[in-house]
Design goal:
Chain A is mostly helical. Chain A is built from five helices and no strands. Classes of the chains: A mainly alpha, B mainly alpha, C mainly alpha.
Chain lengths: 138, 563, 497
């Protein structure tokens, strides 16, 4: 039973990963299961956030300090501060967040147009309502 | 001067379109936007040709963005494979943007056009970026740039269902892209680098572990969605059939092809062929998907009632041939995949152009209502027929060349049985192509009056269920000729005339002759048909190029995976 | 070196140019018809020139070695090229098709005019394309070239088969295309790929290219070729031929005599001689079982079954169609017996059967157009109204059945000798029985027409020279072939396999 104990013992250290995985699965289930277009989009956001969390987590180095150069000279810097967290994942995730926001924006814009054309944002009702006016773009 | 220019070619390939894109909107003039778009396409094509020539002269371009050296900074890299794919997509983009000036998408009005062109340019910039970059995270960023603009482009379709199709593609596409992001994250976790060459080296040194395996699985699922590999193809038929005609043309020749390129690059370069194909059974998985796709998709296509959607299904089938080539994994197999990537691009783009012309002139994509159209739109229909023969793989067409190379590669590897699904698949495509040929040429022609909405519809169309209620009401009989497209097989009882473009305005079209085909429509179609004809008879250029590209991917020493 | 490729290239090209000319001059039927016939004659002239150039050395102005015999047109991929060459089998086939083309053109001009057909230009143009493909197949230097023209031939004859656009014609077209494309795209192409991968190239070389291939694979290849070349109509892939009978009579003539089925059996003959070679054909074995002896029975069974079915057909065209299926398998049998006699017999049977069968079809067309009758049982006494037609029918039937004084006797003679050489007396019996059946189901038609009393009043019906003259002509050639068959045989006998 020691392997199980070891497994549970590692749980707190891997907490972030577990949260990420749970969020990932939740998001994916919402995306697949929800019939409301906006809820689908929210699910997508949760799903993406989970991946962001994963990235951020791996940037953390244990006992690492924020990767900001202190103003004091390096020679008198305490030894403990020589250990920095990795800044790169944060930079990457900043980009990914922008991408995610853009995706959400496009998705919402499409939902607005769907609502205008079909009068509903529920997939079942859209399927029931095949007759819609075409949208003439200006 | 030329030296500086030539050093900066890789970044110019991407950045020209990115920079010009906002100007299309900012300047606010439709004509200016048109000129900008086409000239960008010309410049980008010229750059891709220069890169190809440079690569032929033995150069390997490596461009460090902002001067940061490779493992830390973003590197753009151009070798044979990159130059080959760049050449393909920029050629298609040039012809598609000329085609886009035509009147096939009249619902996108004056004011919307500049925005449309902006999205168009962003899309192609993203695709070029995906090809040219050698940085895994950068691939994701460019993938999203191109995907986001693709959603916008698709939603511009005439049918309101286009918005729905775009939305669904957005959801599926974003999930796919996030999978890829996850995969890149896992890779970074294990290796601490994002540069593809660096990743490749480190993975080869460390060997694989569970994280890398997870990364590979997530990547395959994510990119499989973007490539529309058979079980993950769900978005493609809807997106292609409801997108504006010119967007279908662009996407069919570029989007999936670039995704396939990324897959090839990651599998061979990043993960390494040894890991992807020998340690992991990816070759079997890919080949199984390919076989299913090339056998099942044509059957769906055969039952499809919408012309555009039918050819979209045919794309799913044809992508399977490329996937099979990738799955074979040898130099010959990869070369076959690349050759078909190019060949399928030119024929399918030509087909979608012809389909677009026909749809815009007749106002319908419903196969049943297209009887005898060949007698009115002879050129477009013959181009479609020629492309169709290419899809079947009749000897003398590009389709035959790629099929031959693919089957030969399979036999070379000892997997001669792969020839059977390939040949059976081409036979299955013969069935749906011939269904179209029978309709376009031999079904009773709809009378001129009916075609233009003035007179009575042919009897067989009238006898159809959906139009029975129209016959009783006071609506125009020309309503028979509207698009009764299907979305997820929901039949729609739509109203008169609403899907008809202005080109076939019911009241105002003269009873003789449709809208003449404009030069911007027939010129690219003619160029593509000519290319398809030439490369079908003399494939030495394309096959040589594909072989060099495959060798540049798989070398240093040609790997023999069968042993 | 004198390039012989140019006349060959022209011989292939002229029919295609003829098609373009026909389309270009569609506004004036007279000019169009002239273009059609003239291109046929020019093509014939070229073929005769080629024959004179290629005849045995004693007749040659320049020794044969001085001619470059391979003309490469395109190199599609390394090892995959469109190229032409000249050799006796191809020349015989090309000459047969080239001689029949102008004659058939004249006949079809008359036939279509009589029927007031609205799509004559399309018909003539596609007919030209089909002849061009036959020329391409005849001169093909390798399997790829042959396959290229084989497929174009399939596709270009589809609009001819469905010429009338009636639902029956469209259904027949589907069967036609379905069978021919299925067999060629799966079996034939697979065989070509395998030959390309395991053999020493795709070119037709005397002695074959499969000497290094294991007998098992060679057997598989032989079966793939035998069934893959659906145009040879070996059972069970014969259904398209009777189905295609809905097409106009000149199309049937094209299918049966000139281009399509002949292209099929010619391909089999050429593949057996130049891809397999007699040695590897006769050494097919699997654990001491001589597979060749078994495979030979596939065409033999087709010969018998098709003859039996033909006897039961009352529709004259259907009867002729099954007769064709039976006769084609004679050629296939000749090709598969893998000896000199069989090859000669098969090759000259292409010519003999072409002239005999085209005469029969011309006659059938004339009977249908002039008298409106297409049932054999209705033809009693018709011979007195249409004497020329039925005399020609009689001669052609003699040729098909293999009786003197018509050419068919020689091809059957050689085939019989070949069966003796293989030692399979059963096959000889098959040939004999089939000949007897031929006599029964073909000769009975003119006899019935001449000797049985007519049902109705009699008047002269043959009032269209453009239809009667061609059939007399082809019947005369059938008789002529009886006297020159020896020359043909020695010409083909030159091939060293």
């Amino acid at each position: 039973m020691s392997s199980v104990e070891a497994w549970f013992g590692a749980l707190p250290g891997l907490l972030n990963y577990w949260v990420a995985i749970i969020l990932l699965v939740c998001g994916l289930i919402i995306v697949m299961d929800s019939r409301n277009l906006i809820k689908k989009l929210i699910g997508l956001n949760i799903f993406q956030s989970a991946v962001f969390l994963l990235f951020i987590t791996m940037g953390k180095v244990s006992q690492g300090h924020p990767p900001i150069l202190p103003s004091i000279p390096r020679s008198i810097m305490p030894a403990a501060i020589s250990n920095f967290s990795n800044p790169l994942p944060h930079a990457l995730i900043l980009t990914a967040i922008v991408v995610g926001v853009a995706t959400t924006a496009v998705g919402l814009a499409l939902i607005v147009r769907i609502r205008r054309a079909y009068g509903t944002i529920h997939e079942d009702q859209i399927a029931d309502k095949p007759e819609v006016e075409p949208e003439i773009m200006p | 001067m030329t030296d500086i220019l030539s050093r900066h070619l890789p970044i110019l390939q991407v950045v020209v379109a990115l920079l010009i894109a906002p100007f299309c909107v900012v300047l606010g003039s439709r004509n200016l936007a048109r000129i900008l778009m086409v000239s960008t396409a010309v410049i980008m094509f010229a750059i891709s040709v220069m890169l190809l020539v440079g690569v032929f002269n033995g150069e390997v371009y490596s461009y460090q963005l902002g001067g940061w050296a490779a493992p830390w900074g973003i590197e753009y890299r151009v070798d044979y494979l990159t130059a080959f794919v760049l050449f393909t997509i920029n050629l298609i983009h040039l012809l598609a943007s000329i085609f886009c000036l035509g009147r096939t998408d009249d619902n996108i009005g004056r004011a919307a056009r500049p925005v449309f062109y902006t999205a168009w340019l962003l899309c192609i910039a993203g695709l070029n970026g995906m090809v040219v970059t050698n940085d895994a995270f950068n691939v994701f960023v460019f993938l999203e740039i191109s995907s986001l603009s693709t959603y916008v482009l698709i939603s511009c379709g005439r049918d309101p269902k286009a918005i729905l199709a775009a939305y669904r593609y957005l959801i599926v596409g974003a999930v796919g892209a996030t999978f890829i992001l996850l995969s890149i994250g896992l890779l970074y976790m294990q290796t601490g680098t994002l540069n593809i060459s660096d990743l490749s080296r480190i993975i080869a040194e460390r060997g694989s572990d569970r994280t890398i395996i997870m990364a590979l699985s997530f990547f395959i699922i994510g990119i499989g969605i973007k490539c529309a590999i058979f079980p993950l193809h769900d978005w493609l038929p809807n997106a292609y059939s409801f997108a504006p005609n010119s967007v279908t043309v662009l996407l069919s020749g570029t989007a999936t092809k670039v995704a396939l390129y990324v897959m090839l690059r990651f599998l061979h370069d990043l993960f390494g062929a040894n890991f992807s194909f020998t340690e992991m059974p990816l070759d079997i998985v890919l080949i199984l998907c390919a076989i299913l796709g090339m056998l099942l998709a044509p059957i769906v296509a055969l039952r499809e009632s919408n012309l555009k959607r039918m050819f979209a299904w045919s794309s799913v089938a044809q992508i399977s041939y490329i996937v099979m080539g990738i799955g074979i994994g040898t130099t010959a197999g990869t070369a076959a995949a690349l050759l078909h990537l190019f060949n399928h691009s030119i024929i399918k783009v030509a087909i979608f152009m012809a389909v677009g012309i026909v749809i815009a002139r007749t106002g319908t994509a419903r196969i049943k209502l297209l009887g005898g159209v060949a007698q009115r739109h002879r050129f477009a229909c013959y181009a479609m027929l020629f492309g169709g023969l290419g899809l079947i793989g009749i000897p003398g067409t590009v389709g035959f060349v790629s099929k031959w190379v693919l089957v030969t590669a399979a036999v070379e590897k000892g997997w001669w049985w792969l020839a059977i699904p390939v040949l059976a698949g081409s036979l299955a495509s013969a069935a749906y192509i011939w269904r179209i040929v029978e309709t376009l040429w031999t079904k009773p022609i709809a009378t001129d009056d009916a075609m233009d909405g003035g007179g009575s519809a042919p009897l067989d169309a009238k006898a159809e269920g959906g139009s029975a209620d129209i016959a009783g009401s006071k609506k125009s009989p020309g309503a028979i000729f509207r698009e009764r497209s299907e979305f997820d097989r929901t039949r729609i009882k739509d109203d008169t005339r609403k899907y008809l473009p202005a080109a076939v305005d019911l009241e105002h079209t003269p009873t003789t002759g449709g809208t003449p085909i404009h030069i911007v429509e027939w010129l690219p179609l003619m160029v593509l048909t000519g290319l398809a004809l030439w490369f079908g008879l003399n494939a030495s250029f394309t096959s040589d190029l594909a072989l060099r590209a495959a060798a540049s991917l798989i070398n240093p020493e040609p790997m023999n995976l069968s042993q | 070196m004198i390039p012989i490729g140019i006349p060959i290239g022209l011989a292939v090209l002229i029919p295609f140019l003829g098609a373009c000319g026909v389309v270009a001059t569609r506004k004036s039927p007279l000019v169009r018809n002239c273009v059609l016939v003239i291109s046929g004659l020019v093509n014939l002239f070229l073929l005769v020139y080629l024959l004179l150039v290629y005849l045995p050395p004693t007749y040659l102005p320049v020794p044969r070695e001085n001619y470059a015999t391979v003309q490469v047109l395109f190199e599609t991929l390394p090892g995959l090229r469109v190229a032409f060459h000249i050799e006796p089998l191809g020349l015989i086939f090309a000459l047969t098709a080239g001689l029949l083309w102008p004659i058939t053109s004249v006949y079809s001009i008359g036939y279509l005019k009589a029927g007031n057909d609205p799509h004559q230009t399309r018909f003539h143009a596609l007919f030209c394309v089909a002849i061009g493909c036959a020329m391409g197949i005849a001169f093909a230097e390798n399997l790829f070239t042959l396959f290229l023209f084989y497929e174009i031939l399939t596709l270009s004859t589809w609009p001819l088969v469905t010429h009338s656009r009636t639902p029956e014609a469209m259904a027949a077209g589907r069967v036609y295309l379905g069978v021919l494309l299925t067999t060629s795209l799966i079996l034939f192409l697979l065989a070509i790929v395998l030959v390309g991968s395991y053999g020493s190239g795709l070119s037709f070389i005397p002695g074959g290219v499969l000497s290094n291939v294991s007998p098992t694979l060679a057997t598989v290849l032989l079966l793939l070729f035998l069934f893959g070349i659906g145009k040879a109509a070996v059972m069970p892939f014969h259904r398209w031929l009777p189905n295609a009978m809905v097409a106009p009579v000149p199309v049937s003539a094209l299918l049966h005599a000139v281009a399509v089925v002949k292209a099929g059996v010619f391909s089999i003959l050429k593949i057996s001689v130049y891809i397999f070679g007699f040695d590897s054909l006769s050494s097919l074995r699997l654990n001491d079982i001589m597979l060749q002896d078994i495979i030979l029975w596939i065409p033999a069974i087709t010969i018998l079954l098709a003859s039996v079915i033909a006897m039961r057909q009352d529709d004259i065209k259907a009867r002729l169609a099954y007769s064709t299926i039976s006769q084609l398998s004679y050629i296939v049998l000749g090709a598969l017996m893998a000896n000199q006699m069989g090859m000669i017999g098969g090759a000259i049977h292409i010519t003999m059967h072409a002239f005999g069968k085209i005469t029969l079809f011309f006659c059938a067309g004339a009977i249908i157009v002039f008298s409106g009758k297409n049932k054999v049982s209705e033809m009693n006494g018709l011979g007195r109204s249409m004497p020329w037609t039925f005399v020609a029918f009689f001669i052609a039937a003699l040729s098909i059945a293999g009786l003197p004084p018509a050419g068919g006797v020689w091809s059957k003679w050689y085939l019989a000798l070949a069966t003796l050489e293989t030692g399979q007396l059963g096959l000889l019996a098959v040939l004999m029985i089939s000949s007897l059946l031929n006599v029964y189901y073909l000769l009975s038609i003119p006899l019935r027409a001449f000797f049985l009393p007519a049902d109705g009043p009699q008047q002269a019906l043959e009032n269209r020279a453009s239809m009667v003259v061609p059939l007399m002509l082809t019947a005369a050639v059938s008789v002529l072939l009886f006297f020159i068959a020896d020359g043909l045989a020695s010409f083909i006998g030159e091939i060293q396999s």
